[in-house]
Every structure is written in C-alpha cells, then in structure tokens.
Amino acid sequence: MTCMPTLNRTSGGVVPGFHCGRFRLDLARPLLMGILNVTPDSFSDGGRHQALDAALAHAERLHEEGAAIIDVGGESTRPGAPPVPVEEELRRVVPVVEALAARGRLVSIDTRNPAVMRAALAAGAALVNDVNALRAPGALEVCADSDAGICLMHMQGDPLTMQQDPHYGDVCAEVSAFLAERAEAARAAGIGRERICLDPGFGFGKTVAHNLALLRGLPALAAHGYAVLAGLSRKSVLGAVTAKAPDDRVHASAAAALLAAQAGAHILRVHDVAATRNALAVWNALRETAG
Ligand code: HH2
Description:
Elements: E1 17-20, E2 23-26, E3 31-37, H1 52-65, E4 69-73, H2 86-102, E5 107-110, H3 114-122, E6 127-130, H4 139-144, E7 149-153, H5 171-188, E8 196-199, H6 208-216, H7 218-222, E9 227-230, H8 236-242, H9 250-262, E10 267-270, H10 273-288
Parallel strand pairs: 3-4, 3-10, 4-5, 5-6, 6-7, 7-8, 8-9, 9-10
Antiparallel strand pairs: 1-2
The site of 6-hydroxymethylpterin-diphosphate has 21 residues, from strand 3 and strand 7.
C-alpha cells in the first residue's frame, strides 16, 4: 500500500457485496454506519444514549436519516480509555442489540471481547466490528461459528497508550500488511471473503500525518478486494485541521467521509448521518450522470 493521492474513486478489487447474516449489502454506493455509543465516556457522544429509551430513540433517528447499519458500542476506545469489565459491557449493549434486531435493523456490535461478541450475536447482531481485528483468544472462533459480517480494524497498541508515541516506517504499507494477514487468519478460520471488511483504524495509534497518509492511501487498501470501512467522524485529526471541538466537526466529518468514499471506502462510520448522506448525494449524482 503506497500513499499516492487519488482524483477518482477506485473500484479496487471486485467487491460485489458484503454479507452480514441475512443481510446482503450492495456496495455500489457507499453505505452509512451510524454510531450508537451506550457508554458514559465516548469522546463525542459519551453519556447521551445510556438509558435504553434514549439509545433506541437515537438509533431510530440514525436509521431514518439513512444509516444502513447501527453500530452499538459499550466500551469507549478513545485514546487513554481503560478497558470496561465484561459484565458491564454486556449490561450496556445486549438489551440495545436485542431491541434493534427485533425491529429489523442491521446491528453491528463494536467490541474487542469474544464473550460480548457471542452474546450480541445471540441477541441478533449481524456484524462484529472489532478494533482489535479478532486477535483476542477465541474471537475468530466465535465469529466463524456465526454467519455475521466482520470488520477487521488496525490499531497500534491499545487504547490506553496508543497515542503516546505512534511510530511506523511506512504507515500505509504496515497497516495494509497487518489487515491482509488478519483477513487471511479469518479466512483460514472459515470466514468467507464476502463477510470480511477492512478498516485502517483512523486515530488508533496514529499521528495526524499518519491519518492523512492513510486517507490518501485508501485506494491501495481497497485494491485487496475486500469491503473497506472508514471511520473519521469527529476524530482528532479533524480537530487538528479545523481547530474545532468534537461536536463542531460535522462539516469536516462530512468532507472526510466524502474523500474516503472517493478513495474507495464502501462503508462510512459516522455520527452525523444526515449531513454525510447529503454530502454523498452530491457526489453520487456527479458520478452517476457522468457521460
Ligand atoms: N472508531 C471508534 C470506535 N470504533 N470501529 C471501526 N471499525 N472504525 C473506527 O474508526 C472506530 C471504531 C472510535 O470512535 P467512537 O465510537 O465515536 O468513540 P469512542 O471509542 O470514544 O466510543
């Protein structure tokens, strides 16, 4: 993976669709994954959706605004965040997953913990989103036992310490090699190519320069032929560029999502679904009316 700039969306390898349980996602147009953190301490929306009613109301809003996937997280992975005990994570996420799955939503579970993956899958989640790329003992097996989609993300170190001194020789090459290796491990465990999605992990053990290089280098990641997810929403790289606080990064986030889509991302993980959808509508119209 090199860090070359791109002007046109790369189709990368052929990615016909993304299979998440009974859901078959068409990736011809970028899809939105709406973020629902049921945590007290997430960097942007922490404490806002902890009660079940509030979480479900927010999920409904994300769905109505155009999110194809609702990503439910019960552990903040912001820089410096301590791990959450498994019982507490289960208590936060399982009722929310269950209620959203019962409403027919495509629910993603954002967790590093195999016990939480297993419980969320049993409660109806159809996608496992793991910032640790299924490296925890037992995680690959839990996912292989299901028909869920999986998102394999790159992270250098762990959330507690990852921003202390991130370093790479060639960030794009190293992230790409790591994700290719994790995809191979998933396939060796019996998870089909059509169930796998790769994510460079913006902000996870990366400086501003690393994040920008990865955004420029996204076309090469898409060329692996797996679905690609990008999560730049409200992240500190956008704060560094705009000098805005997380809640005021909506426009920067929509711009970043658009650039990620243009660089080949198929799924955009976002807080601000309506704003991103509007930005993408302009881009889709331009592409689809080209002669
Ligand atoms: N980023 C966050 C959490 N999960 N999953 C994937 N696949 N990609 C990401 O970039 C990603 C992720 C961090 O953002 P957020 O959930 O908003 O914050 P917090 O970790 O503080 O809950």
